Amino acid sequence: MEPFVRICSAGTTGPPTPDKSNPMVRACFMLSEPVCAAIFMCVCVCVCVCVCAECLPDPTSCGCCVMQKKLQRMEWFFNKTVEDISNNLANSKMALNEMRASRSAFSVALGEANASGCFGPFPDERRVVYRHVFLNLGDGYSAATGGFTAPRSGVYSLAVTVYSASAAPGGPGAHLTVNGLQASALREKESRDREDSATLVVSAKLRAGDNVAVVLPKGGVVCDDSSHLNTFTGFLLYPC
């Protein structure tokens, strides 16, 4: 900051002016007095007056004053930056914890690992209870009732596959229900090979607490074995 002190001289009735006793200032004025007058006047006034009024009574303090002001600004900027980073980090951690807490996904199959057999036919509609649980992240699926309860509102992806090796009238089929109301259906007509399957994949907007289940229609039948051919899967795409 010493060059600022050397090129400025204290004014008795006004702000500091360029010190022409300084060889650098004098040489500049010899080359182009209007340009140098403007340059050095700007330096003296802006640095020594506008930045720090203490330079008027004591121009020698100008350098220290300017440096102090710059350090204060740097300190404020540093503290503000650290504060912003801390706030962003806290918000990110909160969002991550919320995301982890709201994770929801399940995948289940009709029969147990070493079991085989058929479910149905029945004289009325029956909810399909999937006993074999591959995944139940968030504990939304109940192996006791066969239903999935949405832990939070959002858009969910739901998939159902039904398979039957029995000569059930009309082939295998099922209804996907939400809160007991049919949302979608899948059915495969019986073919000559006596083995039929059908798959349904839908995206549905659910509210927290909505219950989703698979219902076997009257007279329907599905069969399974250790290959787990009848499955029910769902997961949260995004909350809303």
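(the above was protein one; protein two follows)
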Amino acid sequence: MSTQPHVVSHSFAETTASVTQDMPYIPLDHNCSGMPEGWTVYVHPRGWIYFRNDEYNVVTDEDIRNPAVFFRIDNYCHEGVSKPPDGMEVYLLGTSDPSFNLLVDHKQCMAVYGKEDTKAEKTISNVLRSRLLYWGFLKRHPVHVPITKGAYSEAVDAIKFYYFENLTHGLRSIAPFSKVECEDLLRLLDAGKVQFSDISPVTTTLVAWVLQEIYSFRRADTYGHLTYSQLNQVREASVRPLQKNIRLPLFLDLIMTLVINGLLFGIPKTYLEHVKNASVFHDRLSSLQESWEKYYEQLTREYSDFILVSTVLLSATVSMLSAVDISQTSQTCAILSALSSLGSITIGVFLVWRHQRNIHSRTSTFAYIHNARNNFFGLTGYAVLLSIPVVLLVWSLIAFIAAIVAYTLQNLTDGSQEGVAAWVIVGIFAVIFACVMAGLYSSTVMWRWQSDLWFMQYIRRLFR
């Protein structure tokens, strides 16, 4: 008995005598030529093969072309397996114990291990598990059983709902497919273009994979168990930031607070807020990665703007240093401004390069998140690092202003016309400085809810 199959299909064997000049298409997805009697070999779209016995409705992945394997499976079919009813088959998992074999019911789209009755009353958990097993089986064995119209519609309807959830919840959605993935799947599964009478194994594989992912998600999401309010509570509890509660020693925490609010002008607080928002985990790694990728893009745009401003400020500072009659104080402030601008440009360019290089790398993204939240100072220290370019830019601007003021004040000691002009410039500078500080304060506090500070309340009472 030959056990080596030839790649010849039924249709080809039956029509060989009538082949004309128009050669018919030769399907390679199944054949029984050269196989033991009653067995057919099927070729998965990915290229692997599996075998099915039509008499006993048995499917196996073991290579029955091996005589020893075929002898064992053939004996098992004759002695250990009773033929399942129509619409059902047994998937042999390579063991002689029937309890480890999978009983597949194509009518109900369910599969169970052993001899459990798939028609018996089940809980929602058992149904979800049986459907998950079934679609996993069909994904690996799609050639001999086409997908049904009902299963196809279920897959399309589920994807449409997940698309709607992505639209309404955005990055907070925990759907198993992202918005882009839903769009691609709906385009592939366009029901208007599908002829269910001639469904292909590739389409069956795709739909089976989609439904396997759907039922896997439903099992994890307590599908069909909780009420609306209970499910919302569970999902809200699962939304959590990826930040550890790192508690620094009291003196280090005090020093960090003074540095952030003093030397760094409170700028790291803004970056810390953005980092926390990007670190919220919604039970889907793809959403977390997408959130961080958007944050990377925002950072690179900000750093590019800071680099441009620092470059212009550096050029102005160098021009000021070329003045002949500049005082020592002005010169010192201008040099400090130039050094701060150079530092801002250098760090900004490096951060833009590193973020752009790794923005779409999933491995680098998760390593980045892990290192950001697991350093000694936690996300606060990471926010301080991100704020260095803009902090240096602010210090450069302050030093440049100080250099201009010092250059102006060096003529105030005499009563010449230059001294009068210097006083006028100082007065104008004071007005501009007050307007700038008022604008900075207003633009800072207007973005968040807060009560008036004590001195603002006092000023408001004075004018009532």
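Reviewer note on protein two: The beta strands are 30-31, 39-43, 49-53, 58-60, 88-92, 102-105, 110-113, 240-241, 280-281.
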